TrEMBL record:
Pfam family, one: Amidohydro_1
Pathway assignment: Nitrogen metabolism; (S)-allantoin degradation; allantoate from (S)-allantoin: step 1/1
Gene3D superfamilies: Metal-dependent hydrolases
Keywords: Hydrolase, Metal-binding, Zinc
Classification via NCBIfam families: allantoinase
Quaternary data: Homotetramer.
EC main group: hydrolase
Protein name: allantoinase
EC number: 3.5.2.5
Domain of life: Bacteria
Gene Ontology annotations of biological process type: allantoin catabolic process; purine nucleobase catabolic process
Residue ranges of every copy of the Amidohydrolase-related domain listed in the record: 42-417
One GO location term (cellular component): cytoplasm
Native source species: Plesiocystis pacifica SIR-1
Length: 438
């Protein structure tokens, strides 16, 4: 059992949908209760993934609530928070949030919350969105890739952060600010060219601006998908000041390296880019030192055609990696190879993301009063990635054929078994998670 009290043999007592207690394995309180013994498996809180692009309504051919949340359940993820793009309409108004909620009705296999978006809309519209149930709001400091979700400048960001601070909600930021690169005539088929086109200083410039505006406005800032390890000292200094700055990174930055990406392999494209092995090592150090708070998927699927594999042009291909079902084995495979244990993994995959979304009272922990969301898995079992057997809408994955450690065997949502041996069970049981509502 991986619980706040520590790791070791234990029993979790579930009453209805809630954890009543975590007790020693031989506790007398278990006498007379129905007991299921899971042997040497690990029982951990269900994963909380706060960075998922589900794309419904509007781009459901890319992904959708039914497929994405089934994939989540199969991967031991019991809570997701959906990003405000790439759906149509983007979730930047109360009406758009209502359209998204209507689209997901009856389709949720896991509990689901929503991020709003900051795109420079007027203060009243953003304030209304904060009262409609979103858990926070996201902004892009560079083009998002879709016209419906424009980037914001410094003045728009300052205004939006003031509104969010008043509502007590965090700003999530895609932290890249574009500036000229040294050579714009590089071969678009080589990954080295793509990497050079989005240098680390883009992330550093954006993070420095966000920290300054957090200091001005009092708004909590969350840096999504940190790729550039060179930004860690700046982040550490801001946190030492007491600023509300949190940081995530993703499995692809922790398990893939630029040096091994072949020419034309556009299914590896994401933004910010996957950087060199030396940078990956520093990201791991940032996690272990506590400067990076969490690991989430940034599940960002598209139709295979948009990856343009036949052309292999990194400049033209859509950026994004779909990995929602694989977060746990990807993270565990890389972590265990570095001697990182279950206690840290559970903090990164469950505890910290639940806190970011304001869900720590019910999600991310095996503790009395929390939802009985359980991920049962075997850390010694291996699996071979096959996109065709996964539940996301499309099977294109840069992890195809890789052998990973850490097989999810069962997923429980609020006390109900919703997935066993990788197969979702029964009708969808997920609920919406709206701020300020039970």
């Amino acid at each position: 059992m991986v619980a706040p009290e520590g790791i070791g043999p234990a029993a979790v007592i579930v009453a209805g949908e809630t954890i009543e207690a975590v007790v020693p394995r031989d506790a007398a309180i278990l006498d007379g209760l129905p007991v299921e013994d899971l042997g040497e498996r690990v029982i951990m809180p269900g994963l909380v993934d706060t960075h998922v692009h589900i794309n419904e309504p509007g781009r459901t051919d890319w992904e959708g609530y039914a497929t994405a949340t089934r994939a989540a359940a199969a991967g031991g993820v019991t809570t997701v928070v959906d990003m405000p793009l790439n759906c149509i309409p983007v979730t930047t108004s109360v009406a758009a949030l209502a359209a998204k909620r209507q689209a997901c009705a009856g389709k949720l296999s896991v509990d689901t919350g929503y991020w709003g978006g900051v795109i420079g809309q007027d203060d009243a519209e953003l304030a209304a969105l904060t009262k409609a149930g979103v858990l926070g709001a996201k902004a892009f400091l560079c083009p998002s890739g879709i016209d419906e979700f424009p980037s914001v400048d410094e003045a728009q960001l300052r205004r939006g952060m003031a509104v969010l601070a008043a509502a007590g909600l965090p700003l999530l930021a895609h932290a890249e600010i574009e500036s000229p690169v040294e050579d714009d005539s590089m071969d678009p088929r080589t990954y080295a060219s793509y990497l050079a086109s989005r240098p680390e200083r883009w992330e550093l410039d954006a993070i420095e601006l966000l920290i300054r505006l957090s200091r001005e406005t009092g708004c909590a800032v969350h840096i999504v998908h940190l790729s550039a390890a060179s930004a860690i000292p700046v982040i550490a200094q801001a946190r030492a000041e007491g600023l509300g700055v949190s940081v995530e990174t993703c499995p692809h930055y922790l398990s893939l390296a630029a040096e091994s990406i072949a020419a034309g392999a556009t299914h590896f494209k994401c933004a910010p880019p996957i950087r060199e092995q030396a940078n990956q090592d520093l990201l791991w150090r940032g996690l272990e030192d506590g400067h990076i708070d969490m690991v989430v998927s940034d599940h960002s699927p598209c139709t295979p055609a948009l990856k343009q594999l036949e052309r292999g042009d990194f400049g033209q291909a859509w950026g994004g990696i779909a990995s929602l079902q694989l977060t746990l084995p990807l993270a565990w495979t890389a972590a265990s190879a570095r001697g990182v244990g279950l206690a840290q993994l559970y903090q990164w995959l469950s505890v910290a993301p639940a806190k970011l979304a304001g869900l720590e009272a019910s999600k991310g922990r095996l503790a009395p009063g929390c939802d009985a969301d359980l991920c049962v898995w075997d850390p010694d079992a291996s699996l071979t990635v096959d996109g065709a057997t996964m539940y996301m809408r499309h099977d294109l994955t840069p992890y195809q054929g890789q052998t990973l450690l850490g097989a999810v065997e069962r997923t429980y949502l609020r006390g109900q078994l919703i997935c066993e041996a990788g197969v979702p069970l029964g009708p969808p049981r997920g609920r919406e998670l709206l701020r300020g509502r039970p």
